[in-house]
Amino acid sequence: MGKRLFDLLGAGMGLLLLAVPGLLVALVIRLDSPGPVFFRQERVGRGGRPFRIHKFRTMRVDAERAGQLTVGADARITRVGAWLRARRLDELPQLIDVLQGTMSLVGPRPEVPRYVAHYPAALREVVLSVRPGITDPASLQFRHEAEQLAAAADPEREYIEVILPAKLAAAAAYARDASLWTDLAVVARSLKVLLRG
Prior knowledge:
This protein is mainly alpha-helical.
């Protein structure tokens, strides 16, 4: 089975199974705070092409004015947003992006242009040679990233100089060795983390 077929089957089944829970989440988001259900943001995809990612909105509508990093118990996060983020459920609408072909179930997490500008040329070429994904080894390794940033004196510097290079190294290693079996292993690990909350 090819990677694209795996993505289509996985995303299609996921959207069918999550249709009713997704509608309930959408309703709760609308009741909890003013603004749209979905958060759309420009990210950099395969080959350096920009696309707009889908997420359930977890912050106030004006949140990006204060920056693009989430640091600790960020005051911009809504009550429902905190619950969704803790369980990674805000990422589920990206199944739409997988069906559209801009993302994959497994692949390097897509960054905003601001931080892609910090990619070293050699790693940039490797990481952007594959479709970005909903999950990957680096996102599992850094799932407590917001807490790490909160402990830093300068969160953005910590992200650019410490976290981002480590993420890129893991993403490049994935891109070089990606196969259906590695994807299945990452999906299994991600589901385990999701179910444990």
